[in-house]
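Example 3.2
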Amino acid sequence: MGARPAILLVTKAVFLLALGALLAASAAAAGPRVQAADYDAFWLWAGVRGRAELAAAKTIYLHSGEIGPDHNGFVRMKAQGVTEPGPHKATLWLVYRVRSLDWPPQIVAQIRRRLEAWRAQPGPVAGVQIDFDAVTRGLQNYAAFLRALRRELPESCALGVTGLMDWASQASPEDLNALAGSVDELVFQTYRGAQTVENIDAYLARLGRLRIPYRLGLAEGAEWSPPRALAQRPNFLGYVVFLRNRGASIAQ
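Structure, written as tokens:
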């Protein structure tokens, strides 16, 4: 009778050791994950709490507004993120999440005013980034929209866009390079939800044909092993990490 509890304790201890070893092996097999402290450029979306990493950031892509139809179907801008511009050390990009390209004239006027307000504060502001999920077959139309927007922005304002990894695999070189001339920087989102897309290396292999300077957007906490050849590409500028609150998924 007295031996049975001892056997159970030993069995439980063996099980816990085996479980710990299995979890450790799984973590090792999963590969390294994106840690914000290892990077210096971040997307800061509305609702994401301040982080220590932001104090040392060199570049912050600041969620500044949502542009899309309201409940009556009129395209409007809704301000997001930091409401009052202030002094900053990091170089800022003002990011606008876009759900419609059918803009009335006041949208660009609002963007210009916001840009001027931030540039009136101490600290550099690079320009504006447009976050729009253009389908691959619509890239030529998107490029035309961006050329028109470029003409409406100050010459000193850089224009950037986010890009889907599907562009790399499905778009022709002509479609992608149609963005050149109006776009100063393209940031590809390497993730869906909170995870890096499957077969990411196959997508990245196609980016060598790009003539546009580009970065890769990473999801904080996602698996990521940087390809060695990437750093050798002349148009590759580095990474941008999408910060998120602990335990939260990425939603755009």
